[in-house]
TrEMBL record:
This is Uncharacterized protein.
Amino acid sequence: MSTNKELIDELNKELFDLTAKVIHLIRYYPGWDKDDSYTFPDGDTWHRFDPERDAKAKDNAPG
């Protein structure tokens, strides 16, 4: 079982990673791909917010 300190440490790591990605995204805004996705140097891909596309993806999701 994780202790509170371990949980806080993990959340801090995730927050740092998220903040770094947002800063990177702001600095390199023109780097969006044609499919409205952006791939970071670490390989993580984000998609531009699109409620219609997101609703279709949710409807077509397995399970």
